[in-house]
Amino acid sequence: MTKRMILPLLFGIIGCAILISLGVWQVNRLAWKEAMLSEIDARIATAPVALPDNPDPDAHTFLPVQATGTYGTDYIRVLVSQKQIGAGYRIISPFVTDGRTIMVDRGILPIEEDTPPPAPTGEVVVAGNIHWPQEVDSYTPEPDEARNIWFARDVDRMAATLGTEPVLLILRNATPATPQITPLPVSRAGIPNDHLSYAITWFSLAVIWFGMTVFLLWRIRQRTV
Asked: Where does it live in the cell (predicted)?
């Protein structure tokens, strides 16, 4: 080995080590994410319980809940898009139960329906999962309050607008139901799990880096022969 080969060799070894370590990290993240998703599936599928006195995002996210109460007349429309279906509005309504008022995400209304049908009158039994969606980021437009169109479910802000607790129940089923509004229950489908593809990418780059290093060393050796 000549002195000219030492620096490229070190560069190649360090680069491969970094890329492989990133791939291993993604594999570990994959195991963590799979365990988390399994826990979410198990929590979603458990029997519903009464609404907690003080719902907490850390302790009660995805908690199945059943409650009896009445819908308020106000509502918020959240513009969403479903794969292979298209755009629609999530209908968020206030719900009074046991002297408390929370929000219920009743499901999706087709975009062609500009105004949701009136909520059922009288007592309604709702069952679903408590959730605090993290949908707002720096790119989220401000709500168009004049037309009552929101672009993300901001629990705290929606609660302030509707005058409810900052608690959102995502409906699974209701009795009586509103046929025009299709519930969109909580599921793991909206939680990304791309760690396997990331791991493959990093390991592939490590192989390419190794091959380029070997080729460079071969070229240097050929020039010194």
From this structure: Cell membrane; Membrane
pLDDT averaged over 10-residue windows placed end to end, the chain, 225 residues? 79 92 93 82 85 91 94 94 83 95 95 86 94 90 93 95 96 93 82 86 94 87 71
Q: Please name which of 155, 131, 128, 133 lies closest in space to residue 49, comparing C-alpha atoms.
A: 128
CB atoms within 10 A of CB 107: 24
Q: Which pLDDT score is estimated for 45?
A: 78
CA distance 16 to 202: 10
Q: b vs e for 37-64, b when ≥16 Cβ sit within 10 Å of the residue's Cβ?
A: eeebeeebeeeeeebeeebeeeebbbbb
145/133 Cα distance (integer angstroms): 20
Q: What is the pLDDT of residue 217?
A: 85
**Residue 1: what pLDDT?**
59
Q: In sequence order, what are the residues at sequence separation of 6 or more whose Cβ sits closer than 8 angstroms to the Cβ of residue 24?
A: 199
